[in-house]
Inverse folding.
């Protein structure tokens, strides 16, 4: 949660509080609208599950082909799954391991179904062996319909300050002794980090936050970018007019 909030404030932490609040609100509304349209497109394409669970299922299906299944109890559907050993590209040898899958409650001793709420590769291997529909055990919270409800717009425009209702709550009075009585902003003693990075720079060298396409300064002599006429090193014979 903290990292997600840091990504919202990236590049604007040095701005005034009002600007941070306005930008965070506008960015959140844009995010919800974009993801709502993406979920709506998935629903129009008759896709049942959200992209992340589908990606997880695809990897589990590919891995399930390498498992060996042995039935121990047909009554409750208890199976033993054996993962084959392998050698990684770094030369690390992974030994074969065994897991127990109970088809009645769709559980596995690897713990992944309980942690991620989606079938693991062992569950899929057992479902293929017993011709069981493993997708019926997936929760409805992972469906596209739930994804659409998650990103449904819930924000209202706050208009300008002149149209707000009168405020009748307590008033905050700042300590006069803590006021900054000098010109300019306070001197910062911390080191710059990724939170202070912005997306563009102007021709004067100052950063412009929230801008994706930075301005390019053109030389008045050769019309090329990234330098001016005082730093132009192109000979007169190669100047384009």
């Amino acid at each position: 949660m903290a990292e997600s909030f840091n990504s919202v404030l990236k590049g604007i932490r040095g701005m005034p509080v009002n600007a941070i609040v306005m930008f965070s609100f506008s960015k959140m509304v844009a995010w919800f609208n974009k993801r709502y349209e993406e979920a709506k497109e998935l629903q129009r394409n008759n896709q049942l599950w959200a992209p992340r669970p589908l990606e997880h299922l695809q990897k589990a299906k590919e891995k399930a082909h390498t498992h060996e299944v042995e039935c121990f109890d047909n009554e409750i559907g208890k199976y033993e799954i054996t993962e084959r050993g392998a050698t990684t590209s770094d030369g690390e040898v992974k030994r074969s391991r065994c897991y127990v899958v109970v088809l009645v409650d769709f559980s596995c001793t690897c713990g992944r179904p309980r942690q991620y709420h989606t079938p693991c590769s062992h569950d899929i291997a057992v479902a293929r062996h017993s011709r069981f529909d493993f997708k019926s055990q997936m929760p409805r919270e992972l469906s596209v319909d739930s994804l659409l409800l998650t990103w449904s717009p819930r924000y209202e425009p706050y208009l300008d300050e002149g149209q707000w209702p009168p405020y009748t709550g307590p008033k905050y009075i700042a300590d006069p002794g803590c006021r900054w009585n000098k010109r300019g902003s306070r001197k910062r003693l911390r080191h710059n980090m990724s939170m202070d990075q912005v997306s563009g720079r102007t021709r004067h060298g100052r950063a412009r936050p929230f801008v994706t396409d930075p301005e390019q300064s053109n030389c008045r002599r050769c019309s090329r970018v990234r330098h001016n006429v005082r730093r132009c090193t192109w000979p007169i014979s190669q100047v384009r007019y």
Summary: Residues 2-46 form one domain. The helical segments are 2-8, 17-44, 51-64, 112-116, 121-130, 144-150.
